[in-house]
Amino acid sequence: MTTVNSSSAPAHRTGGTAEERRVLGATLVGTTIEWYDFFIYAQATAVVLTPLFLAPLNSTNPALAQIVAFATIGISFLFRPLGAIVAGHLGDKLGRKQMLVFTLVMMGAATALIGVLPTYGQIGVAAPILLILLRILQGFSAGGEWGGAALMSVEHAPVHKRGLFGAYPQIGVPIGMILATGVLWVLTTTMGPAFGQWGWRLPFLFSLVLIAVGYFVRRSVEESPVFKEMALRRKESSAPLGQLFRHHTKEVVLTALIFLANNAAGYLLIAFFISYGGSVLKLPRPDLLLVTTLGAFGWLIFTFVGGALSDRLGRIRTFQIGYAGLIIWAVPMWYLIDSKNLFLFFVAVFVLTITLGLSYGPQAALYAEMFPAKVRYSGVSIGYALGSILGGAFAPTIAQALLASYKSSIPIGIYIVVAAVISLVAVSLVKDPRGVDLHVREVHEEYLAEHPEIRRDLGVAGEADTAR
């Protein structure tokens, strides 16, 4: 057995290489497309899908129909852990890139099929059943997507820029939201009644173009350097899932709780605010879509800032600043929203996105640094998926139920405060892992002897080299 010499800096650690730029571009494009697919459903649910697929319930009890519609958003989250387990296991075995391409295509296919799905008026109860099945497929794909994209970016990063590199797949989320809400805004303002009749299908079908672009971008990226090292010790990583839960259950639980509040507040922004503004405040939906789209730019900017800031202040401190801000803002923002003033609505959304960005930008780097290489894909994917269930899966449903019970938006803010306190405590229990070595430290000498080119790539000194 021999040890990788950490003082020998492989080429991929130097930063700024063409391959690193391709990786960052690929992870950004891929996550943007996948989250566009995922968010277009959430946005369309708030705008148009409820009467089309839940027609009988919507005609008798619109409030309950909206709760049920939001629940279909959450159902897909329940299948994220399964997607994370499958993609994480195969990603640890076969490579990050293969799973990224696979999940990208699967998500796009499910989204496009929603675009051609018959409504309740055309095929009856089969319509919502088929819709839920396609949502499950979307959830399965999303569960495997994020972990692979996060690791591709962080594992290619120079040590002092992991937070910044890890922010690239993260900003794919607000960009995906900007695309989804922007497309809906354009269509609702230009198509009029035709949007509710057939125009709502266009943003789902548009996914086919995005998927083709993302597929070719991701196919051009080389496999993660850490995974190349893992190929040298296949015996030790023969059962990564078993090893994950046997030795790293605490880390999985913490990653899930750390993500809880960010995801819960994020899905209020993604899905609930538009529904609330339209049905309760009676504000024009096109205006709400525009305000939400503009507000999402704050999420984009501060997610990037959060990633970069974590390289200077540390992952934990940056998370703590973000969650402290969320605790402070979660209740007051509703007074601005309830003013029915679109500018104040925008201010409420924009300030919220600052807290979301600071508690989301460092996530990829933090999660990657919390797990050893041989279980890293599984660990970050499953932790992320469980956090999504605890946080965002049913956040719009819970918010709608609280509103129906208390006839006030303030309990929704209190719900987010409680979630943020839980996440703040969880992240504070983690010792900041910034700068930890992400690479496999031991490799098989016999394998290296057979593959001298890999020895050179990894900077490993063999016995002959040592003797010299």
UniProtKB/TrEMBL annotation:
Organism: Tersicoccus phoenicis
Lineage of the species this protein comes from: Bacteria, Bacillati, Actinomycetota, Actinomycetes, Micrococcales
Listed name of the protein: MFS transporter
Alphabetized UniProt keyword annotations: Cell membrane, Membrane, Transmembrane, Transmembrane helix, Transport
Record GO terms (molecular function): transmembrane transporter activity
Pfam families, per the entry: MFS_1
Coiled coil: none
Transport found in the keyword field: yes
Subcellular location: Cell membrane
